[in-house]
Amino acid sequence: MDALPAAAGTDAPIFDPAAFRLTEQEAALTARARAFGQAVLAPRAARWDREASFPTDNYRDMHRAGLLGICIPAEEGGLGAGFRAYCLTAAEMGRYCGATALTWNMHVCSTLWTGALTEDLDLAPVARAVHRARRQRHYDRILRDGAVYSQPFSEGGAAAAGGVAFGTTAKRVPGGFLINGKKIFASLAGHADFYGVLCTEVREGDEKLSRRDTLYLAIPKDAPGVTVEGEWDPLGMRGTVSRNLVFRDVFVEEDAALMPPGLYFQAALRWPHMFMTLSPTYMGLAQAAYDFTVKYLRGEWPGMPPVKRRMYPTKQIAVAEMRVMLEQTKALWFQAITDAGLDPSKEQVLRAWAAQHTVMENAAALAAKAVRTCGGQSMLKSLPLERIYRDARCGSLMLPWTAELCIDRLGREALYEKGEADD
Ligand SMILES: Cc1cc2nc3c(=O)[nH]c(=O)nc-3n(C[C@H](O)[C@H](O)[C@H](O)COP(=O)(O)OP(=O)(O)OC[C@H]3O[C@@H](n4cnc5c(N)ncnc54)[C@H](O)[C@@H]3O)c2cc1C
């Protein structure tokens, strides 16, 4: 693994290791990501946004820095980060380039879900041994070759919200599976080496698809029958290149399974914080909006005339309100990522939804307030704030835990205990 970039930068940690009692590993990983973000991600971020192009150069450098293997278990060659260590590190990355952090999350989930999460779940010893052997192939590709995995699950229907089974199907054939279906908003489309596709196994005689039969399969980018379709010219998160993926009779061998049959279903029920991993990027963007505002009002933004605006009471009030919102967001999110684990209590799940909602909505609110407070010059494309504003707007839309769905579930679960109904 390469050493830290020479210009480690001067930004303070989002979560101060001493104040938040981070582990040594968390302190080291977040410091590494912050240095990497300032030196590598920040200078390039405007380009991916302007071109709506994938940050290939960043991935090459992330491979060199060991970051592609952050959640691969240490004994299997990775950095061995668990859920919280990853979330804290990803927030530091999101601070400097939202699109890179968000796509990195799709990649990292392919290792976190197959690694630490799967170790927590029930699995027969033989199936676990097969799984460990299979995942080593994926991990080797990542660590050795810098292979990048994406995570397309959205289909434009209720499946990505967790309501029904995925409409993309996998049928067993000799030696493997045949995949058919379509995924929308597939970040890294055309750029990942493998698409980690969630699909439903279909068998002869099945009357309807079941969520219990969800499979998680790694489809090579160039497999016959895989096509990337559609335009990509969105409001924000432009570097994610989230185009549509179509699979027509795509064959993958049995070893393409990233998780054993039934395990994704078990994970979704028993490890629900797995769906919070889209939030760290937006935690980072919330911090970035605040940081920008403070530097700008102090007349310290690089490349801008050193005009101070901090003496106006309206600016001071706005920054105070932003700070309150940022502290609330950090505190709730930190507790929720600390809660994460197998079979959380109802309280912990409600808190996870509240935290997800808060981060996604507050990142957008903080960015909007930053623009209003800093003023007209701050939204020029030569400065990062207007990109942060557009990127932050996307957080609430991310299934399965959109801001709306978090509210929907929170309200219902807070008022009803299991099995309760009204006449
Ligand atoms: C930048 C970006 C990158 C993305 N990357 C990926 C990716 O890599 N992989 C991937 O799989 N997806 C990805 N997505 C897709 C994302 O997770 C959603 O699937 C997508 O935004 C849904 O858009 P839609 O218009 O089809 O939403 P719809 O399904 O039409 O839903 C619209 C809204 O209605 C609400 N809603 C939806 N279903 C229900 C329900 N059953 N009950 C009540 N309310 C509901 C939700 O709040 C939702 O926001 C990405 C999205 C963005 C914006």
Automatic annotation (TrEMBL):
Residues 167-250 form the Acyl-CoA oxidase/dehydrogenase middle domain. Pathway: Sulfur metabolism; dibenzothiophene degradation. It is an enzyme of class 1 (oxidoreductase). GO terms for molecular function: acyl-CoA dehydrogenase activity; flavin adenine dinucleotide binding; monooxygenase activity. It catalyses: dibenzothiophene + 2 FMNH2 + 2 O2 = dibenzothiophene 5,5-dioxide + 2 FMN + 2 H2O + 2 H(+); dibenzothiophene 5-oxide + FMNH2 + O2 = dibenzothiophene 5,5-dioxide + FMN + H2O + H(+); dibenzothiophene + FMNH2 + O2 = dibenzothiophene 5-oxide + FMN + H2O + H(+). One of its GO terms (cellular component) is cytoplasm. Its main location: cytoplasm. Its EC number is 1.14.14.21. CDD domains: ACAD. Keywords: Flavoprotein, FMN, Monooxygenase, Nucleotide-binding, Oxidoreductase. The keyword Nucleotide-binding applies. It comes from the Bacteria. The keyword ATP-binding does not apply. Residues 278-394 form the Acyl-CoA dehydrogenase C-terminal domain. It is found in: Cytoplasm. InterPro entries: Acyl-CoA_DH_C, Acyl-CoA_Oxase/DH_mid-dom, Acyl-CoA_Oxase/DH_mid-dom_sf, AcylCo_DH-like_C, AcylCoA_DH/ox_N, AcylCoA_DH/ox_N_sf, AcylCoA_DH/oxidase_NM_dom_sf. Residues 23-108 form the Acyl-CoA dehydrogenase/oxidase N-terminal domain. It holds the Pfam family Acyl-CoA_dh_N. Belongs to the DszC flavin monooxygenase family. This is Dibenzothiophene monooxygenase. It comes from Roseicella aerolata.
